[in-house]
Amino acid sequence: MGYRQLTQIQRYQIFAYLETGISQRKIAKAIGVHSSTISREIKRNGLTSGYAPEQAQSASDQRRRTAWKVTKRLPSLIRWVTDQLMDEWSPQQISGFMANANGVCVSHQWIYALIWDDKKHGGTLWKRLRLPRQRRYQRQLAKRAGLGKIPHRVGIEQRPAKVEERRHIGHWEGDTVLKGHKESGLVTLVERRSGYLLAARLPTITATRTAQAMTRLLAPRRGAVHTITLDNGSEFAEHRKVAKAVSAKTYFCDPYRSCQRGTNENTNGLIRQYFPKGTDFRKVTNAELRSVVNKLNDRPRKRLGYRTPAQVFLGEYSGALETAGAALIS
C-alpha cells in the first residue's frame, strides 16, 4: 500500500488501541496501514510518558510546515544534484552527503524521481546510474524473496569428515541456476559420490518455493539422503523444512567458496550447455528439463569407471551394484 499521512482520527484510534494493550501489528491492520507506520508514528511523535494523539498531531503538523518541499524545487538545488550525478555519485551518496553537510533532507527516492523525469524529457542522467532501473527493481524483488542471513545456518566445517571421502551415496550438494538477478531459475541437487542429478524449475525465486521443490525431489529418495551441502543464497533460508522432511542435516559452504560444492558447480556448468545464460526458466517446460537431467544422468563418467551416474546411484541404492564403500569405482 502507498504511504499516506495519518489523520487525527487515526491517531486517536492508535491511542485507544495502545491503551488496550494490543500489538502494533494488530493496530495497523485495524486502521488499514502498514505495521511500520505505527512503529514510526510512536517513535517520532510519541512522548516519554506515552502516546498522546493531540501532541502527536501537533508535532506532525509542525514537521510538515518546516519540510523542505519548496527548497527541493529550487533550480540551484537541482543543478547541484545534477552535477553530482554527472560525477557518478549515487542517489544514496548525494542524499546522505547533503544531510550531513547542511541538513537539507532530500531522499534518494526524490533524486531517482528527478532522474526518470529527466529521462522522460530526453535527458541522459539515467545513464550515470550504476544499475539500470530494471536491475535495481530485480534486486529489490530478490531481497523480498529472502535475501539476507540464513537462520540456523551450520557451516561446512561441522560436516562429518567422511562426507569428503565419497565412499557412500547419500550426501548431496545444492545450488541454483538463475536467470538474471533471481528472476527465474532451477534448483539443482547433485549426489556427491555418483554425480546423480535432480532438478526442478523455479518460476519465481523464493525461499518457500525452493524448499518445496527440494522436498519434492528428495522425498522419494529419502533413504539415500543423509546430508545436504548448500550455497549461501537466501533462497535456501528454509533449509530446515527440507531437512525435517527427509531426515537429513544441512550444511553451508564458506562464503565465496563454491569449490566446496565442486560436484554441483561442475554439473551446473553442464546444464548451461542446454540452458545458456539468459534462459527464461518460466518458458522452459518440465519435459524439457527432464530430458536434460536424463541425458546427464545417463552419460558415462570416467571417475565412475565409465558407468553412468544413474547406474551408480540407483545400483548402490538398491543394492544391485556392489561398489558401496569403494574409494574408486571400476
TrEMBL record:
Family annotation (SUPFAM superfamilies): Homeodomain-like, Ribonuclease H-like
Entry keywords, A to Z: DNA recombination, DNA-binding, Transposition
Name of a matching Pfam family: HTH_38
UniProt xrefs under InterPro entries: Homeodomain-like_sf, Integrase_cat-core, IS30-like_HTH, RNaseH-like_sf, RNaseH_sf, Transposase-Integrase, Transposase_IS30-like, Transposase_IS30_CS
Domain of life: Bacteria
Record GO terms (molecular function): DNA binding; transposase activity
Domain Integrase catalytic: 156-317
One term under GO cellular component: cytosol
Biological processes per GO annotation: DNA integration; DNA transposition
Function: Required for the transposition of the insertion element.
Family: Belongs to the transposase IS30 family.
Full protein name: IS30 family transposase
Organism: Vreelandella nanhaiensis
